[in-house]
Specification:
Oligomer: single chain
Radius of gyration: 11 Å
CATH class of the domain at 21-68: Mainly Beta
Largest sheet: 5 strands, antiparallel
Shape: globular
Order of helices and strands: HEEEEE
Helix content: 10-25%
CATH architecture of the domain at 21-68: Roll
């Protein structure tokens, strides 16, 4: 199991998205596009809330890119 390294810039950037609660777009390697707010992250997954009272677990290895929505 990979150790969760909070010193990595990508981990810190995701944590900023968690704190700000701003919407993000997550493009998957399957070409699917997910939009929502990030609730939490760990060493293997990101939890995305596409709408209130809903959540999707996204494996980090499935993410092609992630960007903040304007």
């Amino acid at each position: 199991m990979a150790e969760f390294n909070t010193g990595l810039p990508s981990t810190r950037q995701l944590q900023n998205f968690v704190k700000s609660k701003n919407p993000v777009e997550i493009k998957l390697v399957t070409n699917d596009l997910l939009v929502g707010t990030i609730l939490w992250q760990d060493s293997q997954c990101v939890c995305l809330a596409p709408e209130p009272n809903a959540s999707i677990l996204v494996w980090r290895q499935a993410i092609a890119y992630l960007k903040a929505k304007p």
